[in-house]
């Protein structure tokens, strides 16, 4: 029994409270399913192009885009509307300071590289990989039921590491509306270009 526990603990294939599941899956050679759902849909809607911090993307013309740097890291928000239950895309850019991709992802999952958004009210439903700007990104899907929202929200947290920077992206919508909003998220994800 002690031998089994020692093997499991030293293998690196365990996680504390599920926080490191994504990086553990990668390190333990578990194959994550590739989420191609955004690549296979499109929205026939007019778009605008936004560029800041070396990032460029298209977004639906009726949405609002803002950027800020007050928190010390560069952030961009694309909002369908301004409300607590709003449909939004968010990206935060954090320098890796020479960390490997695996370490940067681990730091994000651990909440050490950026202020962790994940709280006990976030229930992880699934994990995937996806391709954004010809680079593998890691996606975790959460259902969120807490006092910040009046509805149960679905949040997709996507982490991409490129050129010594980590890009932490969030797609957010009420759970019952998320699939309807996917074509609009796809406009952004499919057009994203990183420096």
Overview of the structural elements:
By secondary structure, the chain is an alpha+beta fold. The chain has one domain (31-191): Protein Transport Mog1p, Chain A (3-Layer(aba) Sandwich), CATH 3.40.1000.10. Helices cover 23% and strands 38% of the residues. It has four helices and ten strands. Strands 1-7-8-9-10-6-5-4 form an eight-stranded mixed β-sheet. Strand 7 (122-132) and strand 8 (135-144) form a beta hairpin. The protein is globular, with a radius of gyration of 17 Å. The relative contact order is 0.20. The model is unreliable at 1-29 (pLDDT under 50).
Strand content: 35-45%
Distance N to C terminus: 50 Å
* Major beta sheet summary: 8 strands, mixed
Low-confidence stretches: 1-29
CATH top-level class: Alpha Beta
Order of helices and strands: HHEEEEEEHEEEEH
* Number of distinct beta strands: 10
**What topology, given as strand order, has the largest sheet?**
1-7-8-9-10-6-5-4
**Secondary structure tally, helices:** 4
Shape: globular
In CATH, the homologous superfamily goes by the name Mog1/PsbP, alpha/beta/alpha sandwich
Radius of gyration: 17 Å
Mean pLDDT: 80
The CATH architecture would be 3-Layer(aba) Sandwich
| Quaternary organisation of the protein chains | single chain
Helix content: 10-25%
Structural class: alpha+beta
Say what the CATH topology is: Protein Transport Mog1p, Chain A
């Amino acid at each position: 029994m002690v031998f089994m526990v020692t093997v499991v603990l030293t293998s690196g294939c365990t996680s504390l409270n599920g926080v490191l599941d994504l990086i553990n899956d990668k390190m333990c050679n578990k194959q994550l399913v590739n989420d191609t759902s955004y690549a296979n849909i499109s929205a026939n809607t007019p778009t605008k192009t936004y560029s800041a911090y070396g990032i460029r993307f298209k977004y639906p013309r009726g949405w609002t885009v803002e950027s800020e740097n007050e928190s010390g890291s560069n952030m961009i928000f694309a909002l369908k509307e301004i409300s607590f239950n709003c449909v939004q895309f968010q990206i935060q850019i954090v320098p890796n300071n020479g960390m490997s991709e695996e370490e940067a992802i681990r730091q994000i999952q651990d909440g050490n590289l950026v202020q962790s958004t994940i709280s006990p009210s976030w229930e992880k439903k699934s994990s995937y990989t996806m391709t954004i700007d010809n680079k593998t990104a890691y996606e975790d899907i959460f259902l969120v039921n807490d006092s910040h929202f009046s509805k149960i929200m679905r949040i997709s947290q996507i982490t991409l590491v490129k050129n010594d920077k980590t890009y932490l992206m969030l797609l957010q919508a009420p759970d019952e509306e998320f699939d309807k909003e996917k074509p609009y998220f796809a406009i952004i994800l499919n057009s994203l270009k990183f420096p």
